[in-house]
Each structure stands twice: as C-alpha cells, then as structure tokens.
Amino acid sequence: MNQLRTWLPHLLALSSNSPFWAGRFTGLKSYRTVVWKPFPRSGIPEIFPAWRDFDAYVQALVKSGSIDNGKKIWWDIRPHPFFNTVEFRVFDMPGSIDNTMAIVALCQALVAKLTRLNNVGLWTPLLSNHFIEENKWHAMRFGLDAEVIDYAQVRRLGMRESISELLDFVDDVVDDLGSRTEINYLRAVLEDQHGTGADQQIAIYRETGNIDDVIKFLMRETMKGIPTEDVDVVRAM
Questions:
Q1: What is the CATH architecture of 4-232?
Q2: Residues with Cβ < 8 Å from 21, sequence gap 6 or more?
Q3: How far apart are CA 5 and CA 12, in angstroms?
Q4: pLDDT in tens, 22-63
Q5: Where are the domains of the chain?
Q6: What's the pTM value of the predicted model, to 2 decimals?
C-alpha cells in the first residue's frame, strides 16, 4: 500500500467522471472527490512501516469505540480488513463496463509489478502525503489535462505522459495477467481529447447547453455491454 499511494492521482484522473453537481458545471473533473473529502478517515493514508502498525491503528479505533471494524476506514487505498487484499478506493464513478475493467486491470498490474520487484529486493520511492495530495488536487481539477510532479525525479509533466509511463512500467506483467486488451483501452483513452467520462460530459454540455443531454449520455454509457433482455427489464422498471 505504501508504494501504491504514489499513483492514486493517476487512477483518479483516469476515472474522473463528475464535472457536474446539482445540475451545474463545477469547473472540476471530479467533484465526487470534493463531496467525499469531509468524511473521517478518508483521503491519502500515511505510510505504515509494517502490517502490525496498521493493525495497531485499527485496533485502537475499535477499542476506543470510534469504529466497529476496519471497514469504516475509508482511505483512498487501504488493506481490506477481512480479505487480505489491497482495496483501491480513490476512483470517481466510471461510466462504462469497459472503463471499469480497464482501470481494474491497471490496479492488478500495479500490484503484480510491485510484488515482482519487492520479491527481488527492489522498491519504488515512498512519497509523503503532501506530495501525493498536491498531485491529487491537480487530478481532481484537470483530470487527464493536469500537470503532475514526479517528485522522485523532480520534474513536471502532463498527466497523460505520466500515465503512459506508468503503463510502460507495468507492461511486462500485463500478458501474464491476460489484460492486454484492457491496458490498450487505457492507451486509447490517453490519445483521445475527450477520453474520460468527465471530458465527454463537458463536451456534450458545451455543444448543447442542456444538462439533460449529459444525463442521456450517461444512461447510454451505463447500459453499454448489457444484454438486451436485461435492458428490457430495466426499462420495464
């Protein structure tokens, strides 16, 4: 989890899909992030040196009555308290099945790549929360059009370029995972000016000026890939 924190802004940018709130354009690509921010135990987690440190934190909250179990920790990424997995939670709400599966594939590839490196004694740099929060803000505001800072190499680059480098970083584990199609989908998203759900919504609104057209687009995107008989059931409801 400590290493994975670095790429949370990138995952947020890829999933950005909430530029509107209460029928108004917010100027942000992911307003959902703003809505979620006031909740306790949310945002970027701090670095935990070992599992026992995380477990001690959870147990302290449980014993003090703050929470009843570890599922009440709502960080952008967390160890799942019951499944022994890493749970990515930073995302906005992807608008289609294809987009969802592609982002899931990237998360899987990231975990697989870091595990492979760690098994041979290699580790990626750990960034402080301050640095990650800076990049997260840019991702929330600008999505794929953001500029982010690579603090390990002390350079600024576009989000699309940074994600492209991330895809190259995990490329050697993709075929073993059987997710080449999903990763190629993300490469296509990076090349598309209106690649994310947020960008597509904004483009439609600027063209028509009608929020209802945006809603209809979201409905069509949601139903893509769903069998016709299921669509009929939804319509009947």
A1: 2-Layer Sandwich (3.30)
A2: 31, 35
A3: 12
A4: 999 999 999 999 999 889 999 999 999 999 999 999 999 999
A5: 4-232
A6: 0.92
